[in-house]
Fold these 2 entries.
Entry 1:
Amino acid sequence: MIGLARSARAKRFMQGSRAGSFLARKYVAGQAPADAVSVAGELLSRDGIRSSLFYLGEYADSAQRVTESVAAKLAVAAALGRTVLDVHVSVDPTQIGQSLDPAMAGGNARRIAEAVWQAAGGRPGAHCAMLDMEDASVVDATIALHDGLKREGLPVALTLQAYLRRTGGDLRRQIAAGSRVRLVKGAFVGAAGVAYTSQREIKASYRRLAGLMLAPEARAGGFYPILATHDDALHAFAIETARRNGWRPGEYEFEMLLGVRMAAARDLARRGERVRLYLPFGRDWWPYAVRRIGENPRNALLLARSLVG
Ligand code: FDA
């Protein structure tokens, strides 16, 4: 799957073929900002599910790609501002220039957060520029980016990863600051010194961290927990902890990826929980979709069907 995600030939073929469009529809909310906003609107009206919009194009390796990513993020924030939807935009730091020029990335993050603030225009909702977290080499820079924007009073949120041993300390500081944090297991592999490497350890770490996020002190300090996982056992743990500690639905939320465990997302929403889906959009969808396929062996069948169908 990693080979397929990196293969320029597979990407050209899939992104241009009818077979590919089947996969794109499952995991991706269209190519243009307007397509993604329309999918977000349907999810809210049909299922009561909110969205965070993500322009595809990770690890931008040229100033031109960075400019294109930033423009797409500004466009989608403005388009969300013209609706009743949350102005909620996910941002990978490397998409906006982190690995090319950190100062440029800082400026771009500020422009996006300001665009979110302007588009929201003071109307109620969970509006923010959500910083995704990439590999361990950019964790400090991403936290610094978040903290700087937060100090300026801009609507910003941070993703932290349970697979990293350092996350307990990072999370405690964000809880004390009353931040908005999305907790994920982590899509990367780290050395044993800095990371938990087995699924068992990563899940145990997620539980401990979710427990901190949903503690009564976190609620009292205005912290906003976002539990981003497709794992039923962790959903149940979070709901049980939230209830025991006095959190009401809407004071925290669950987040999942479009096309992955949609029935579980709808079920949580029907039970009154606040649920958000991460909605990727853009032309460059193949590397993202193939990673989703790789996460579940049953999805390999989908891929095979789409190739022969
Ligand atoms: P896990 O893999 O433990 O599986 C739980 C259940 O879901 C299983 O039953 C499994 O079969 C099913 N499932 C999982 N993936 C599936 C798929 N593709 N198709 C069908 N079933 C599937 N990571 C990161 O490092 N930085 C980031 O910024 C983010 N951002 C982010 C945002 C959001 C909203 C989400 C949901 C996830 C991320 N991630 C991320 C990814 C995250 O770190 C992690 O790799 C995935 O969420 C997988 O872990 P889970 O706990 O969700 O499911």
Entry 2:
Amino acid sequence: MFTLSPLPFELSALEPHISARTLEFHHGKHHQTYVGNLNKLIAGTDNETKSLEEIMAVSFNQPDQTAIFNNAAQVYNHNFYWQSLNPAPTKPGAEMTQMVVDSFGSLEAFNEQFLATALAQFGSGWVWLVLEAGKLKIVKTANADNPLVHGQKPLLTIDVWEHAYYLDYQNRRADYGKNIIANLLNWNFAETQLKS
Ligand code: FE
């Protein structure tokens, strides 16, 4: 059985960029619901003893297991999103900065492309910084989809489902994305992922 991972910060820690009220619903209701649904779906099956990563791998692209994939991936994606946010601004270290420069030209160019990709995702989904074949890339995924099942290693993500920003920003996804990129993106976590 899976349990809801606690947030790695206080509910109000991301204010004014993301409110405690948004986190209360996003973590306490949306994320919790994915955990509860997944537990119901895997009860009494082989999946009960598997990790989230294993469940995603076996259920991906299986038409009869869409609900299992969606809920497992959404549990994983949200765990990853909370860790991608840091209450205080962080900066990439020397090695990560070099990789960012190699792939995007500059940190500013990365920031612009990350935001543009978040805006380009039509409807619900996620924008990710990933490692693929030794290079950094920005990708977007729709709904519950996830870079892991496409052979990419996720380093950072922003949730661009409306439930992530609607209470604070209504329809203004760009402002939500800009504020995260400027103030909350957790480069320390990205570096930990890079080395894992
Ligand atoms: Fe979400």
